[in-house]
Amino acid sequence: METVNIHEAKTQLSRLIERVKAGEEVVIAKAGKPVARLVAADPAGTVRKPGSLKGRIRIGPDFNAPLPEKVIALFSGREASR
Prior knowledge:
Elements (H helix, E strand, L loop, with lengths): L1 E4 H6 L1 H9 L4 E5 L2 E6 L30 H8 L6
Parallel strand pairs: 1-2
Antiparallel strand pairs: 2-3
């Protein structure tokens, strides 16, 4: 990971972007202190295929059953009755 000052980042932005596209990260600093990180963006437009996990995920028969009182108590920040 390379650290560059703001002035250098402004003058060398194209070069830095090429390095980031290649998988590197660049830290931009002001007065020697890191203030930003230049990283590659997630690729947009990834196509999801509906049903691609069919047969690989199971949902239990009690999926919609009410939660036990003990669990509800934990979520609400109170102690469960014993």
